[in-house]
């Protein structure tokens, strides 16, 4: 028996990395009975007589997991958002950040396609960069053939398991290909008629890139706050967490409560007004969510 990490799941097979070698394995039947499914990123105990015919015997405890994309034990999320085509969308970026924060995964942000901007738009992106860095998120402004930004991204990847998140067409696969051309992950031009990217990534796979493991995931297809409780939402905004002990009420939701430190922070410009407005929007979405039985 040996310990390894699942780096790919495809057509009922799990590809387990152990000591630099990959073993093709099947899951044992008792996983199905227990309604447990091995995930990419899982640490597992497995047995294999050769590289083609192994069996996964048990799965170690997970520190986190996503349903869509199906992956476990993620250290950080690289959130790619484009400056243009599709246009920068801070509401969508904040939605990704909340989903990642809810899983206690560290995010860092890459704003792509900076080379396609005029000077006024470059200035606007630099302001956003400053705003998100103030919250505590690393932000990299990236352009095609910009070796400096690629070096910065690679430094973040070393020694960690990273998922890439971002809407279609922002250049996630292109970014991975420019970091490591050996990957030649399929990329598609944005479909002009739809104005959004075609899904080119089909399955979850961990690639060895820059001394870390990177999942080129088939999008975060669900951007709904399905399992996020209202009380958890403030915890997903680091700038709120920083001041929440100064709120009059413990468990303050920073909405209608009096003497709220977060609302005071928005009023005096310490907390971004648009981030706070997005918070209120997400709050309403969770409140309006239909109960699941």
From TrEMBL:
Subunit structure and binding partners: Monomer. Associates with 30S ribosomal subunit, binds 16S rRNA.
Cofactor note as given: Binds 1 zinc ion per subunit.
Residues noted as binding Zn(2+) in the record, renumbered to the chain: 247, 252, 254, 260
Keyword rRNA-binding: yes
Protein name as annotated: Small ribosomal subunit biogenesis GTPase RsgA
EC number: 3.6.1.-
Keyword Cytoplasm carried by entry: yes
CDD domains: S1_YloQ_GTPase, YjeQ_EngC
Top-level taxon: Bacteria
Pfam families, per database record: RsgA_GTPase, RsgA_N
Function summary: One of several proteins that assist in the late maturation steps of the functional core of the 30S ribosomal subunit. Helps release RbfA from mature subunits. May play a role in the assembly of ribosomal proteins into the subunit. Circularly permuted GTPase that catalyzes slow GTP hydrolysis, GTPase activity is stimulated by the 30S ribosomal subunit.
Domain CP-type G positions: 63-223
Cofactor names: Zn(2+)
Domain EngC GTPase: 72-221
Class of this enzyme: hydrolase
Primary location: cytoplasm
PANTHER family: SMALL RIBOSOMAL SUBUNIT BIOGENESIS GTPASE RSGA, SMALL RIBOSOMAL SUBUNIT BIOGENESIS GTPASE RSGA 1, MITOCHONDRIAL-RELATED
Leader peptide range in chain numbering: none
Subcellular location: Cytoplasm
Keywords: Cytoplasm, GTP-binding, Hydrolase, Metal-binding, Nucleotide-binding, Ribosome biogenesis, RNA-binding, rRNA-binding, Zinc
Residues annotated to bind GTP: 112-115, 166-174
Family per similarity comment: Belongs to the TRAFAC class YlqF/YawG GTPase family. RsgA subfamily.
